[in-house]
Fold this sequence. Notes:
The structure is a single chain. By secondary structure, the chain is mainly α. Helix content is about 75%, strand content about 0%. The chain contains 9 helices and no strands. The protein has helices at about 5-10, 15-40, 40-55, 70-90, 95-100, 110-130, 135-145, 150-155, 160-184.
Amino acid sequence: MSDTVALIQDWQAGNEEAAEALYNAHRSDVYRLAYALLGNAEDAEEVAQDALTYALVNIRHYAPERASFATWLHTITVSRCRDRQRRKRLVSFSLTEWLGLGRDLSDPAPGPEASAIEAERREALLQAMQELHPAVREALVLRYWAGHTFREIAEIMDCPLPTAQSRVRLGYQQLRVALREERA
């Protein structure tokens, strides 16, 4: 039995330390997902706390036969992010800021020229990501950042499996075209 399953069972039995351990075990992943989708640290922190609190208070609704705890928690997080975006009427988010905070993508010891080239490539990718439709961008973040399977993406985004697959494929194709045009 995994640690998460044991903690869930302990929390359902009333062990508050298990709830705290679940919260701490998943807090950073939930925060990073919320930040990737919202692009704002304060909003991401609030959404992460809200999603984790909701999950812990409503743990009886978790069905391990349907999805992993992480997938269930990411579904709640994506839903909370969508609610936040609707309330704030956000059109897009800055992936530049997201990658600049908490994501070390650079080579440990690149030279100045390599650093400049990498920064240029990263900026082009971030610009292209910002141009994508929010649902397509969401699918790409869930697939390539959070590492979810297509089935999990479909569950999280509440869409059919082929839709999740096509959103990722469409996003990848649109990024490839945009980056090719950028180089020309």
